Amino acid sequence: xxxxxxxxxxxxxxxxxxxxxxxxxxxxxxxxxxxLYNDIDTYFKSSERDNLILRASTNxxxxxxxxxxxxxxxxxxxxxxxxxxxxxxxQENDKEVDTIIPGGELYxxxxxxxxxxxxxxxxxxxxxxxxxxxxxxxxxxxxYQLVCQVMNKSFTSMNNNWxxxxxxxxxxxxxxxxxxxxxQMWQDIFFKETTQSLAQTCLKLIKKERNGExxxxxxxxxxxxxxxxxxxxxxxxxxxNHKTTITPSLSTYVEYFEKQFIKExxxxxxxxxxxxxxxxxxxxxIKKVSERLDQEEKRVxxxxxxxxxxxxxxxxxxxxxxxxxxxxQEEAIKLLHVERTGDLRIAHGLITRIRDANKPIQKxxxxxxxxxxxxxxxxxxxxxxxxxxxxxxxxxxxxxxxxRIVMEGFCDEPGYRVAFDNACGKFINGNAVTKAARSGSxxxxxxxxxxxxxxxxxxxKTEENDSDNKIGQIxxxxxxxxxxxxxxxxxxxxLAKRLVQQxxxxxxxxxxxxxxxxxxxxxxxxxxxxxxxQDIRISTHLIEEFKKDCEIKGKxxxxxxxxxxxxxxxxxxxxxxxxxxPNQLQPTYSLFTEFYTxxxxxxxxxxxxxxxxxxxxxxxxxxxxILQVSTYxxxxxxxxxxxxxxxxxxxxxxxxxxxxxxxxxLLILLKSQVLKCSKITVSEELKESDIKNDYMIEVxxxxxxxxxxINLNQxxxxxxxxxxxxxxxxxxxxxxxxxxxAIVRTMKARKQLDYNSLIEQIIPQLxxxxxxxxxxxxxxxxLLIEKEYLERxxxxxxxxxxLP
Length: 804
Description:
Helix 24 (about 505-520) runs antiparallel to helix 25 (about 525-555). The protein contains 32 helices and 9 strands. The relative contact order is 0.03. Strand 8 (about 790) and strand 9 (about 800) form a beta hairpin. By secondary structure, the chain is mainly alpha-helical.
């Protein structure tokens, strides 16, 4: 016997002893395991082994069974009889294995050891059934797998040398690394003999669990883990890649367990669903199905392989949901109308699992939201012109109500959010109020702007925190407005008045709204609004500089004098009239004009009298009152410093106020009884036409008021009406301009387009500001053809070309 064979026997004795102790759960020290690893490694590095490898390589051209027998004879008496019998057994089962190269003997010693161990263990479990057998199997598997993993690491040298040579160089596909070989032994000796009993027992336990009984699910998990870990087929063993290690696969798990599991699951739920739906309400059935789906998903997570989920759930969905989808959808619609969002969420969870099953519910949500919105506005349509707040609050109430349903009942899924948004857009832009208004859908934009004006003005009694919330709500409504250019026009006009009249409750709130409008519609949309704010800030610093300049130069100016210098193209005010300032104001204004033109050469100042104001004090009354008046009112009242009475015609000539404005201004002074006329009886019914040119007007020296400071600066209705008309006209003009610009921009880029393609490309460019009408686009196309920006094809009248 050679020294190598002696060392082999010593190594095998240590290996087999270590394995027995591990299988019996006896502890091994680290030192013992390290010695075992080192001995195996030393065996494969020995000089005798190297000589044998060389001799085997030169003497043996192939690895047939005959050549093995000749080589074994050549070894002669170097091998003892026990080793010869072990090799003979292995060679009968594993043809073409090169056992002469050291490693072969150790490999088959190990393989026979595992075979004997598994045969014994299998016999020990023959009398066990059901859970007892699963416990036995699970414990055996856990120990066996652990020991084999440890031994695989210990036999690293053999894996990397002899086994690799057999598979890669000699193309012997019946040889595996130690761990894979141990899994093969498990399959062939233990698993295949017990798999039917294992699977049936696991399936029985799963059925018990579904029926509400408590089971030891860890037993099922251990069994199924062994199916996966030891799961490779004969075909996979004989792979063509010559890999030393065979990767575990799911084929054994699928073949011996999963197929039967899914089949029995289908049978179970088919029977249960038929019985349950006959004996219970559809709502209870929905809850039951949701509960069952959760249980099955948890079951996969707990002890099945994750890949089972994608095969199992569609089968269950088909049986439990698809077969009853019509009734489930009907119930969901009922739940929507009674707003039971908790139950609706559960029903939605089932419906959303089935393709296209959401569409009828989404359509019903859109119709229900739309009709509810129409009804809400119909209920308050009589008050909206006086109370824009009621209109906006009705919109927001419907929005908040159905937004909650979408969020809670439909998990805020995009399809439902789109249906909800469509409904809001429809009822906000088309309802009883907009249909009754000349401006149509623009009425919603107008009322929203007026509500903003109320909210942002002084005296609104809104707390700071609540203001932020309300501004957020305003933006919610704004996002649904189609005519955003109409909102821009009305909001800009009202903001201008608040800034000029210094009636804003909070600059922070004003700037917050502008910021949000900028975020929603871009810089261009809010640029004029931002410019207004900038002008007011600049004017504040400008008037301070002017007053300091006058003080340094010793110039006297009117107490409380202030000026706002406004950029003409940013502010929505009419062009100034020919009215001249009262003589008392002229010197101070001249000084400011001189100061400003020196500071900003080339700029021109024009007074906007309609938005100018001042204060006058009555010296003829006790107590002395302060009258807050417009510049026009001031001009009329200051005339009576020099005369006691004047005819209407002479007041008009002296004040130089525009005829269309003069009588409305005078009417306010007469109604407030600051002025009087012996031929006029003051009442609410007093009209401008009641004031005749020859009527004599004088100061009412008996004027009395409970307030010391009296505001007479009221808006002139005629001016407001004209401004509204001008705004409507400007909106139409701007829309025409925007449409033409979009057409030219598109045609310049495309060079040639047919009518339908042109319309399709233009509309998206405009919808951020307004919803363009097709007729308006057609008119703009014709206008651009007249202006020679476009031409129509001579043969095809629907085809247009850009003219450079």
